[in-house]
Write a structure and sequence with these properties.
Number of domains: 1
CATH architecture: 3-Layer(aba) Sandwich
Distance between the termini: 29 Å
Mean pLDDT: 92
Number of strands: 8
Order of helices and strands: EHEHEHEHEHEHHEEH
Strand content: 5-15%
Length: 272
């Protein structure tokens, strides 16, 4: 029986992944912002809820990540995997308490920060896994990181690529610095979840109109996150770009100097 932490596991794809993982007999620790959603998630697990727990956390700030890691490590000295399904679609200009844009703070930096703090527990697993869900973006060196990490002012069309690609670089970094750890990035696909809640009204309306034509099912979107989390028959680091198609994957091969530059910045920002 494995113990898996799912950041963002109280809703959306993360919640579906948690259900499937529990159905296969494992334990899950869910992190999420809403206590109400977390309690509802546990209640929906039925008898499997005895193998699940929930912690209400705010992963958009450094203090929130540190608090989440402390609480997890207080009760779990061993983790077999961390699945990062947290995500936010905030397009306008705004800043967290740390002076960072929420899109960057949640969709990349919190993943780096939380994983770094949980490495002691992950290293107690014979083959730990770290999986990061992103939008569809292939690993590529064709990206401009000149605005990373401040993105001031935030420009979604210009900045989203470098934020998402930072996850690929972190997967490469984890592989190089933690022998035996497997790291991957998985395309979350297009799914009808509440991630659009902070998007502009026109985008939300478009989702309602076009959703039935373009959205993947929640079960399809959760398949690759679950399989990469539980299975060992894949090379690290790897990117899964096609929701539901575990056999289709792309090795993550990136410029190591760019990776280390981004990791240096991440380390400076978080202290981890």
């Amino acid at each position: 029986m494995k113990t898996l932490l799912i950041a963002g596991g109280n809703s959306g794809i993360g919640l579906q992944a948690a259900r499937t993982i529990l159905d296969r007999g494992h334990r899950v620790v869910l992190l999420g912002r809403s206590q109400t959603k977390g309690e509802a998630a546990l209640a929906g697990f039925g008898g499997a809820a005895e193998r699940a727990s929930f912690l209400a956390t705010d992963l958009s700030t450094h203090d929130g990540v540190r608090d989440a890691a402390r609480r997890v490590l207080d009760t779990h000295d061993h983790l077999d995997a961390v699945l990062h399904s947290t995500g936010i679609l905030t397009i306008g200009e705004s800043r967290t308490a740390d002076g960072l844009h929420p899109f960057f703070a949640v969709n990349y930096l919190s993943r780096y920060h939380l994983t770094q703090l949980l490495l002691p527990a992950l290293r107690r697993s014979p083959r730990p896994h770290v999986i990061m869900m992103t939008a569809a973006i292939k690993p590529t060196d064709d990206a401009d990181f000149a605005r990373f990490p401040q993105f001031a002012p935030f420009a979604f069309r210009q900045d989203r690529k470098s934020v998402q690609l930072a996850n690929h670089h972190y997967a490469a970094h984890l592989t190089r610095t933690n022998p035996g750890l497997a790291a991957a990035v998985v395309n979350a696909g297009a799914v009808e979840t509440d991630i659009l809640r902070a998007a502009p009204a026109a985008m939300r309306l478009g989702g309602k109109i076009l959703g039935p034509l373009v959205y993947d099912s929640i079960e399809k979107a959760a398949r690759n996150p679950v399989e990469t989390t539980l299975r060992d028959d894949w090379e690290t680091p790897t990117y899964w770009g096609k929701p539901g198609r575990f056999e289709q994957r792309t090795p993550i091969t990136l410029d190591a100097s760019v990776t280390e530059h981004l990791m240096d910045i991440s380390r400076t920002l978080t202290g981890a």
